[in-house]
Amino acid sequence: MSHSDLYAEVDRSAYTNALAKNSPITKTFFALSALVIGVSAQSFVVPIVVFILCTCLSLGLAKVKPRLYFGLFVYPTLMLILSCIILALFFGSGQSLIDIPLPWTTWAIYRSGISMSVNTFFRVEGALSCLFFLVLTTSITDLCVLLRRIHMPQVMVEMSMMIYRYIFLFLEITEKMTLAQKLRLRRSGWLSSIRSLAMLVGSLFIRTLDQGERTLVAMTARGYDGDIRILDDFPAPRKIALLGIVFFDALLIVLIFLTLNIGVV
Amino acid sequence: MIFKLENLSHRYSDGTLALSEVSLSFAKGERIALLGTNGSGKTTLLNHLNGILKPSSGNIYFEDKPLAYDAKSLLNLRKKVGFVFQDPNDQLFAPTVKQDVAFGPLNLGQTPEQVKKVVDEALETVGMSEFKEKPPHFLSLGQKKRVALAGVLAMQPEVIIMDEPTSNLDPRGTSEILHLLLRLNKEKGITLLLATHDVDMVPLFANKLYILNKGKLVSEGTPKDLFSDAELIRRVNLRAPRLTHLFEVLKKEDNLPIDEKLPLTIGEARKEILQLLGTQKPEKSVEQ
Question: What pLDDT digit, counting tens, does each position of A107-127 carry?
Fold first, then answer.
């Protein structure tokens, strides 16, 4: 999947998944509370539970395609593995687990370093699963209405709305321009590819200014006066769902205390 | 007269004189086509009718009152005069179809319940109800055009102005938009003003035609009168509908006894041909 395809897939999922019609309040509350609890846990147990739960909800309840869901994990996980290797090999203190003698020093690997690395790995994966659950089940429109409800500054909400709308337009334009460059035999050398990219970015920038101007005119024609009003009509959250989430969060917190001292090695 | 323009001129800040001494007027319920080549000043003229541009000189009267440019008068004008832009991507800015159509009515200060109702009605009218919750980038160009029209309809305008309503649409999309517009004119009495260079579309749609050339109004009349004037049409770098052109050639080159007013549509052409063949008039018209 190319990058723009992946974005488009995520976006499509947000509008078409089985939970799309549910209240964004419920979904956001669940994702954020699970995220905070998962990240604050000391051991890897709670993040794993969070991960499993988010995965089950995303795949089972929201019916997100597994290929898309797990596909999202690929790049962050690669980065994460690299960081965790470094954590395990170079961090930690106290009694060393293995000593590797080198001619100029002794390289010590610590128990605490390994445990930090494993905990970090699961914490991040757990947090990612919360985030992906939210982005795959909740549309930007719903999030914008929600942000407006919790009194986020208007300019931020408006910017997010417009950026979201026009990202897709400019992705399309970028693809067309790249293709047009290729068709006119853009050379593949490093220097000339930089030059082609510079031209592309330059003309894209002008296009955005132009688009902004024309959109403003079109909005003015429909009575725009500086405030973008949005229709706030999403369904009220179901009380039972909210209670369920609170109950579940409480269980997770208990689990945090129960697993305080579980070590890795 | 719902709109009256008197000696309207517009000079852009770069010095280009885009409109020069244009005077025209039209009544409620009319279907007007504004015909002209690219750069003839059509869009500039349209932008004046919605208060987006101010004339450099001349006067504009809406419902017999001169246009005022304070915020309240403009909002009132924009409620009554809806503008559908040429490129729907300019117009659709909201993340979903529903939010976009709701934008206008919300600006008019309607309550959420009212807004929901007019949004549903407008989407129903243009046949896009099932796409209500979809973001605009899921839609085809023809669908986007219809949503853009719904966004204007939701404000319940008396006049709808459309810039190139059929540009880049496939034959089916073109025909759908045209029929939709004709229906709005017939059922709701909405006055329509379309800028276009699609000459084949004009006779199907308009009862009145204005021809602009290089910022000047060169002619006005019924499509039949203007398209029969081959010399005028050529001078302003347009062409008559294909059919009309054929009849012009038959008349001039082959000296067939064809009426001074050339046929513009298939129905008229059929009548003319049957007459030439000496057969009776067709019983039923297939026009449009």
Answer: 888 888 888 899 999 999 999
Name which of B27-31, B144-148, B221-225 the model is least confident about.
B221-225
> Is the Cβ–Cβ distance between A36 and A99 less than 8 Å?
no
A158 touches chain B (CB under 8 A): no
Total H helices, total E strands in chain B: 12, 10
How many CB atoms neighbour CB A68 within 10 A? 18
| Tokens encoding A154 | 């208007």
ipTM over 0.90: no
Q: Does A249 touch chain B (CB under 8 A)?
A: no
DSSP state of A59: I
Whole-angstrom distance, CA of residue B259 vs CA of residue B181: 31
Single out the residue of B184, B125, B188, B193 nearest to residue B163, CA to CA: B193
Please state the pTM of the whole predicted model: 0.81
Please classify residue B275 by burial: count the beta carbons closer than 10 Å to its beta carbon, then call 0-12 exposed, 13-18 middle and 19+ buried.
Answer: middle
Q: Which residue of A has its CA nearest to B154?
A: A222
Measure CA of the first residue to CA of the last residue in chain A; give whole Å: 38
CB A193 within 8 A of CB B68: no
Measure in Å the smallest separation between the Cα of B102 and chain A Cα atoms.
7
Query: Mean of the pLDDT values across residues B127-156?
Result: 92
Task: Calculate how close chain B gets to A1, using CA atoms only, in Å.
Answer: 19
Instruction: Please judge whether A139 and B91 are an interchain contact, meaning their C-beta atoms are less than 8 angstroms apart.
Output: no
Give, to the nearest 10 degrees, the angle between helix A154-183 and helix A190-220: 130
- Please indicate if any CB of chain A lies within 8 Å of the CB of B156: no
Q: How far is CA B202 from CA A127, A222, A245, in A?
A: 60, 27, 61
The residue of chain B nearest to residue A139, with distances taken between CA atoms, is B95
- Higher-confidence residue of A220 and A236: namely A220
How close A145 gets to chain B, by Cα (Å)? 10
> Is the minimum CB–CB distance between A4 and chain B shorter than 8 Å?
no
Give the strand pairing for B159-163 and B81-84.
Answer: parallel
Q: Do A228 and B103 touch (CB under 8 A)?
A: yes
* pLDDT score at A75: 92
Alpha helices in B195-237, H assignment, sequence order: 202-205, 223-228, 230-235
Q: What is the pLDDT of residue B288?
A: 47
Count of Cβ atoms closer than 10 Å to residue B31 Cβ: 19
Q: Which residue in the set A140, A217, A229 is minimally distant from B52, CB to CB?
A: A217
**Mean pLDDT rounded to a whole number for chain A:** 87
Tell me, yes or no, if B106 comes closer than 8 A to chain A by beta carbon.
yes
| A236 in contact with B, Cβ within 8 Å | no
Shortest distance, CA B286 to any CA of chain A (angstroms): 38
Element (H or E) spanning B191, and its range? Answer: strand B191-196
Tens digit of pLDDT for each residue in B221-244? 998 888 888 888 889 888 888 888
**Measured between alpha carbons, how far is residue B172 from residues B69, B121, B142, B185 in Å?**
40, 23, 9, 20
Residue among A141, A220, A229 minimizing CB distance to B52 = A220
